[in-house]
């Protein structure tokens, strides 16, 4: 793909020195495209067998020796779990649930890979702990974004389908309640600002009656100043014996130690660094020279992935807007989601994408975490994730690629590298996770064929 560029320089040893004729190049490109199609389609192949196989492999995060029955869930919840099509718990569910359901209640800080069922784990804990006869909030669950709060709320609704005495309310922007009212729902799910207002300013919730407090995506809740202030202010209003449950796929060291300081005597489930990435998500990078070349590379791939769903991550809203525009001009059905949109608009875009109305979602980090769309088979990092100082943002990388390969499905993550700097970032990401990210070279048919198989 690269011509007289730095990328070619990087490539020097690998690239054959001989020049090829235009005809050969075109011929190669066509076969590369069809192989790429094959590669991506192969990655879409997924059967429930695959999940069953993984659930029997002790090294898989889906492995479990217990059944849901053995986790001693209420019959109504067992019914809900099976109605959702879950056969066995995953490793995090099997390990965390006994800790969360123990008496007296125990605190927990838990890490488990993306898409391994953390949400179901803490949702089952909340549903198990509420007393349906008490008509007031008993569990609070805080999520970093409006979209995630809605998504988690849906899981509570589905799992609690056969437990209708337990009710849920959303503490999110736009859900206006009458002043002076007291909530009767037992579970409140929301974002930190509204949740805090409902506890302190409006007093819709009596925080002293809360038994379980869940922080989903806990590391970002702690690392983001505003979220941290609000979450800690809520926590301070809760009774001393309130159970605290913190969940995430990533916990940077400093965040981990802070979490341990704010959660008294926690049980801890922590992954080793090398366990953080999922083997079911294959990671590649493509060398390009410019934004335009990345777009070209993307078009090649995009042609092949129209049958699946893909999420494309950009660093800025501007690039995301530009890219969505370019893809639309090419005639593609693309959805754009970025931070400046109204939250309701963002939720609507995700709903359309979830329903498969658009096959490609171009977005920024606002969508990197938690969003669970089963059909996403490819994630493309159009720009690699970096922090405000330009260093690799390893946690965001993991969350972004974790939008594919959900619960044992196979996924493909493709990183676009367009400068020495971004190659350096990619190398540091590889080092951090001690995981090789393979080069995808559309000029090397053998290599693509190998990946395709
Ligand atoms: N025991 C199970 N059996 C089958 N499917 C499950 C099970 N538990 C969860 N799932 C499904 O797996 C998918 C991923 O689960 P979930 O969203 O809870 O993952 P997560 O660990 O919270 O991911 P993330 O770190 O990205 O937030 C969901 O679609 C969920 O319905």
TrEMBL record:
<keyword id="KW-0067">ATP-binding</keyword>
<dbReference type="InterPro" id="IPR011545">
    <property type="entry name" value="DEAD/DEAH_box_helicase_dom"/>
</dbReference>
<feature type="domain" description="Helicase C-terminal">
    <location>
        <begin position="280"/>
        <end position="448"/>
    </location>
</feature>
<dbReference type="GO" id="GO:0005737">
    <property type="term" value="C:cytoplasm"/>
</dbReference>
<feature type="domain" description="DEAD-box RNA helicase Q">
    <location>
        <begin position="66"/>
        <end position="94"/>
    </location>
</feature>
<keyword id="KW-0347">Helicase</keyword>
<keyword id="KW-0963">Cytoplasm</keyword>
<keyword id="KW-0547">Nucleotide-binding</keyword>
<dbReference type="InterPro" id="IPR014001">
    <property type="entry name" value="Helicase_ATP-bd"/>
</dbReference>
<dbReference type="GO" id="GO:0005524">
    <property type="term" value="F:ATP binding"/>
</dbReference>
<dbReference type="GO" id="GO:0005634">
    <property type="term" value="C:nucleus"/>
</dbReference>
<protein>
    <recommendedName>
        <fullName>RNA helicase</fullName>
        <ecNumber>3.6.4.13</ecNumber>
    </recommendedName>
</protein>
<dbReference type="InterPro" id="IPR027417">
    <property type="entry name" value="P-loop_NTPase"/>
</dbReference>
<keyword id="KW-0378">Hydrolase</keyword>
<dbReference type="InterPro" id="IPR001650">
    <property type="entry name" value="Helicase_C-like"/>
</dbReference>
<dbReference type="InterPro" id="IPR014014">
    <property type="entry name" value="RNA_helicase_DEAD_Q_motif"/>
</dbReference>
<keyword id="KW-0694">RNA-binding</keyword>
<dbReference type="Pfam" id="PF00270">
    <property type="entry name" value="DEAD"/>
</dbReference>
<dbReference type="GO" id="GO:0016787">
    <property type="term" value="F:hydrolase activity"/>
</dbReference>
<keyword id="KW-0539">Nucleus</keyword>
<feature type="domain" description="Helicase ATP-binding">
    <location>
        <begin position="99"/>
        <end position="269"/>
    </location>
</feature>
<dbReference type="GO" id="GO:0003723">
    <property type="term" value="F:RNA binding"/>
</dbReference>
<dbReference type="GO" id="GO:0003724">
    <property type="term" value="F:RNA helicase activity"/>
</dbReference>
<dbReference type="Pfam" id="PF00271">
    <property type="entry name" value="Helicase_C"/>
</dbReference>
<feature type="short sequence motif" description="Q motif">
    <location>
        <begin position="66"/>
        <end position="94"/>
    </location>
</feature>
